[in-house]
Amino acid sequence: MERSYLRLLENNKMWVDEQLGNDPNFFADLANVQTPEYLWIGCSDSRVPANEITGTKPGEMFVHRNIANMVVHSDMNLLSVLSYAVEVLKVKHVIVCGHYGCGGIRAGMGNQQFGLIDNWLRHIKDVYRIHSKELDMIKDLKARENRLVQLNVIEQVQDLGKTSIIQNAWKNGQSLHVHGWVYDIHDGIIDDLKVTCTSVKDLHAVYHLDRAID
Ligand code: CO
After folding, report:
1. Each residue's pLDDT tens digit, 85-110
2. Both 76 and 13 in a single domain?
3. Which residue in 135, 130, 108, 106 sits closest to 119, CA to CA?
4. For residues 5-32, average pLDDT
5. DSSP 3-state assignment of 204?
């Protein structure tokens, strides 16, 4: 058996020693409660580690990652994470962070069959279709892909706003901002697309939901 995984367990021991060296109560404090202010929805890509690129420590960020940082309304995993983050943890910011060079976005733009994952990539194709007028005019394929990365983030920000979870939080007076960012794997810089969604006014009227019956 290839045993490179053992390195991870050795690293873990060193990490624990390092944390305890800095703060003997590090784990004792964290074990009691988590009060993260941020929910991160990012890509599963191994080059985009949420905590590292944002300089956040354990306890600071609730994290959900999937291929191409998608917000799919029938995804129980995403909905459960979102519901817990907003209703119980009361995070103040939800961040959708895409990244340039995203394999999911590139696959979604193309026509090759990959198998089961095609059903997931379909959602990216829908984003492409909605914005096909703009995207088809971009002749350079890399530039077109980069723009689709941005447009996909913008659509996922909107998709979050469309959920009853987020809209009910807004109605209850909870301060909750949904942000759209893109990380550049070439230089490590995060670009804020400044498409923040902070109330139903940022959504098309057809998506406004009346208060739930309670
Ligand atoms: Co990706």
Report:
1. 999 999 999 999 999 999 999 999 99
2. no
3. 108
4. 95
5. coil
Ligand 1 ion local residues (Cβ < 5 A): 43, 45, 102, 104
Residue 26 scores a pLDDT above 70:
yes
Find the domain containing 83 and state its range.
37-207
Residues 38/60, Cβ–Cβ less than 8 Å: yes
Catalytic annotation on 197?
Answer: no
In the block, residue with structure tokens 């469309």: 162
Q: 83 exposed, middle or buried (CB, 10 Å; 0-12, 13-18, 19+)?
A: middle
CA of 143 to the centre of ligand 1 (A): 16
Mean pLDDT of all residues in 155-168: 97
CA distance 187 to 8: 26
Question: How many domains are contained in the chain?
Answer: 2
pLDDT given at position 211: 73
Report residue 194 as tokens. 């400044």
Residues paired with 65 in a beta bridge: 42
The model's pLDDT over 177-203, given as tens digits with 9 standing for 90+, comes to 999 999 999 999 999 999 999 999 999
pLDDT score at 208: 95
Distance CA 205, CA 65 (A): 29
For residue 179, the cross-strand partners are 95
| 70 alpha carbon – ligand 1 mean position (Å) | 10
Shared domain for 59 and 144, answered yes or no, is: yes
